[in-house]
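Retry 2 of 3 after timeout on previous attempt. Resubmitting structure tokens to design endpoint.
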């Protein structure tokens, strides 16, 4: 029975991600973010459960990626689809999408979904990503993209179609870039070995308390910059 526990947690990820998709299609970004975050929460613990129970399997690995494809790949793509659509047509809606109209540019948002699929496929066959990530993990990217939708009223430049398309391109790139990024996996709580992980968590907490959703893009940017600094220091 215990060998099925990690897979049940993974199903929790997939189920939450599916609900997030429903809200994302309705442009209800708050609830899409909440259920996406719940899915990512499950995603964090399925691998941990497999290690603790010593029931890691190839099936679990593939199932995990398929669930992530929905929660961390499709959801942010739908969110960006809506953001780009609204930037070119204030009356844009999924229900009235028309390939023959200017709305078609909104499909550019699904470049994020394609980039996520490519990254997840590479991750499954890349033996280098045990202690660190190569490229931005899909959950971090999904949180980043969805948080932009929550911050759009405070950041007017996010209503520009060119900016949104550029973000989509950069998202595809950073997901698959050959950049070594920190993995928040603690082998122990030694401060000397994990100071940068503790720093990232501390900065994240402070920013979220003070800026809420606006903090998320800053946290992701800080995460990437800190990872590059640590990577060069260890090289």
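Retry 2 succeeded. Sequence:
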């Amino acid at each position: 029975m215990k060998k099925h526990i990690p897979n049940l947690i993974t199903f929790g990820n997939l189920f939450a991600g599916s609900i997030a998709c429903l809200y994302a299609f309705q442009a209800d970004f708050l609830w899409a973010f909440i259920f996406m975050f719940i899915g990512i929460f499950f995603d964090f613990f399925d691998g941990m459960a497999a290690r603790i129970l010593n029931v890691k399997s190839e099936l679990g690995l593939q199932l995990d990626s398929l669930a992530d494809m929905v929660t961390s790949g499709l959801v942010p793509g739908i969110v960006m689809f809506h953001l780009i659509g609204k930037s070119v047509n204030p009356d844009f809606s999924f229900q009235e999408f028309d390939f023959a109209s200017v709305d078609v540019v909104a499909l550019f948002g699904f470049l994020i979904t394609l980039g996520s699929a490519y990254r997840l496929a590479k991750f499954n066959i890349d033996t280098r990503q045990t202690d660190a990530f190569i490229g931005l993990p899909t959950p971090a990217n999904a949180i980043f993209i969805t948080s932009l939708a929550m911050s759009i009223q405070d950041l007017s430049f996010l209503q520009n179609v060119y900016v949104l398309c550029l973000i989509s391109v950069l998202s595809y790139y950073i997901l698959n870039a050959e950049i070594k990024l920190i993995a928040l996996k603690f082998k122990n709580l030694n401060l000397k070995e994990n100071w940068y992980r503790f720093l990232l968590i501390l900065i994240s907490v402070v920013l979220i308390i003070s800026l809420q959703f606006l903090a998320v893009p800053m946290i992701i940017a800080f995460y990437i910059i800190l990872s590059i600094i640590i990577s060069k220091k260890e090289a």
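Attempt log closed. DSSP finds eight helices and two strands in the chain.
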